[in-house]
Each structure stands twice: as C-alpha cells, then as structure tokens.
C-alpha cells in the first residue's frame, strides 16, 4: 500500500473513469490553488443541513442551505460538493485542513473511505471556537489522502450492496442544534441573575423603607429642624434605581439615625431604645 502523490492523483481526477467528479476547477492542477496538493485532494462544502430545522424548513432535509455562520457550540451536517468514485484498489482517509481546525471547527466523522465507495462525503461539524465560523459552499473543508492497495479488495464497498444515501431528516433530528447547550445555559444564567437582582432590590428597598420611616418618626418627634433636610434627601433617593447607590444611602441613613438616637437619648435617657445609664453609686 502506498500514499499517492500529485502526479499520480491528477491523472486519476482528470483522466478516464475519474475518481472525483462534480468539481469545477479548470486551472493548472499543479498550481497553488489546485484541489490536488502534493499528496492530497481538497474537497469543498456542498449542502449544509441545520439541526433543529424541520424537513421543509430552511436547513432541513428538503431545503439545505449554501451558507451559514456557525456560532460557538452550534452544529451542522454537511456533504461535499464533489462525488467520489473510488476503485477497488483505492482507499482514502479524510480530515479537516489545518486552517479549518485552527479556528475551532471540529469534524466528528470524516474517517476513512472504503475501496469502491461512490458518492459525496458527509459529516458533522461543531464550532468549538470562541468566534463564529462561516460555512460557505465551495469553501475547502476536507483534505483527502488516497492510498493505493497492493491489490483489489476481494469485495469492495459497492459490491457488498452499499449505496450512498442522501441526508435523511432523522439524521438531522438526532443532533442538538447547540452542542454545548449555550443557549439554554445562557438563558438560565440570565433568569437567575434577574431573580437575584429582583430579590436584592426588594430586600434593600424594604430595609430602606423601614429605615426612612424610623428616621422620619425620630426627626418629627425630637428634631423638627432636621425634617426638611431629611425629606429633601429622601426625595432624591427615591429617584435612584441603582442598587449600589441605594445601599450607600441606606448606610448613610443608618449613620444619621445613630446620631439622632444619641442626641435624643441624651435629652431623654429613659426612652425604650436608649441604653441604661452607667451606675454612679459609690461602692462601699
């Protein structure tokens, strides 16, 4: 068995009974952009199917798309535009090119191609990167290494009764639209954050109301001269919706309340919330 190189691959692609059809390349087969590289063949994106889409919806089995920006965690099923026609003495192995895998696109099942296989390749991809990955028809997606066996296989893939089946809707439905479940987890985190913020705001708002009421009572009963200033502060505080500012104002009001209590207890030490005066009795 040997790995075929470019001057062995090109005749197999453009000669009689080609092993690769449905390509649109018409340039120099030994140039930089040729599908045939020094010892491999680049295959491109054909149809794109989207998990979560129904059969007749965009991306479903009956309506594949030609492009898709795959967000982090999202999955897609793809077929190659090119069709393989491997002979009984040829096998192949496919994997994503480095420029694809470096961007975080994981290909789950390119694998090997048996001798005698006829049809496009199909596989599932998952965006494991941190950025969107653009899937576009005709963009390179699979690098294929072709091996020549020492002899024909005794009974190749097609001779065993196999046929390349089209993508079925049940295959699409078997996959999650979001491999990492990013959408659900983000929704749960957001909902939890809103609940926590609501609880925190409600709790602080309740404490704030109680403190304001107590300050108002104390100021009205003992320190009338302070009432106008406190009411002015309260009016400003009511306009604030920021929790942090509310916490700061609560702390300030608590400090004011402590000062009021100190003054009123000095004037009326027998009030219920005043601490008992220290004993001045002379010990025998």
Estimate the mean pLDDT confidence: 82
Output the helix-strand order: EHEEEEEEEHEEEEEEHHHH
User: What kind of assembly state do the chains in view correspond to?
Assistant: single chain
Strand content: 15-25%
N-C termini distance: 114 Å
Biggest sheet record: 9 strands, antiparallel
Low-confidence stretches: none
Brief write-up:
The protein has helices at 6-14, 98-101, 169-173, 182-222, 227-238, 243-267, and strands spanning 2-3, 20-21, 36-37, 40-49, 67-70, 75-80, 83-85, 90-95, 105-107, 112-113, 118-119, 122-127, 133-136, 140-148.
Account of the 3D structure:
The protein folds into 2 domains: 2-180, Distorted Sandwich (Deoxyuridine 5'-Triphosphate Nucleotidohydrolase, Chain A), CATH 2.70.40; 183-267. The model has no long low-confidence stretch (mean pLDDT 82). The chain contains 6 helices and 14 strands. Helices cover 34% and strands 21% of the residues. α4 packs antiparallel against α5 and α4 packs parallel to α6. Strands 1, 3, 4, 6, 8, 9, 10, 12 and 14 form a 9-stranded antiparallel sheet that branches. A 3-stranded antiparallel sheet has the order 2-7-11. β3 (36-37) and β4 form a beta hairpin.
